[in-house]
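Ticket #4471: structure export looks truncated?
Reporter: QA, pipeline team
Priority: medium

Steps to reproduce: submit the single chain below to the structure queue and open the exported record.
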Amino acid sequence: MVVAMHMSDGLVNAPTAAVFGLLAVIGLGLAVHRARADLDDRTAPMAGLVTAFVFAVQMINFPILPGASGHLLGGALVAILVGPWVGSLCIAIVLVVQALLFADGGLTALGTNITNMALIGVFAGYAVALGLRPLARRGRRGLVATAFLAAFLGTVLASLGFVLEYAIGGAGATSLGTVFVLMVGLHALIGIGEGIITAATVGAVAAIRPDLIYLLRGQAGPLELHGGVSGRAAS
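Actual output as written to the record:
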């Protein structure tokens, strides 16, 4: 079995693929409706940038263990920068392009991949970030720590979506216990890399334009950034 977040064709049976395909359509339909309220002259350009960034870095795999590699999922990153509704659409666009043009993830598995990465990964990462928002608002170090934890936990939770789908309709010969250990264990390691990249990216944006960070909207005062730089988040 190849351990990767991108499911391939035939990894789950047809009924399971169909159910999660429908779930993905419903989730993205709701995201389209809710994203309209978040898209403005700041969020729209940022959404394009983060979509292009996630697409580029997802093409780069980094080694985890012999025979296993990982890449950025981007769920927490997009959620922190542009919000979960817009962010889920950004990740979905990346997954559709990868499936259609680069055969990265099967077409019949597109629904499961969108469910795991564009829905679970994004909203789990944002839920963690939202819970830690008081820490993020204290300063750049708090924001960076929040981004790291949101990305790490979002990645692990997204891997549990994979395990759930395999438990419901797995078509492979690998036992569920083995899938659970491999997916969660390896994605805990992948989550560390995800956390580092997400923290670095969010920290870089905060150093220049903290007002562009969706998570910080509603900040009452300036975000004090270590190193003598400060900025004001949008109210």
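Status: closed, not a bug. The export was complete when the record was re-opened. Leaving a note from the reviewer for reference: The beta strands are 62-65, 68-70, 222-225, 229-232.
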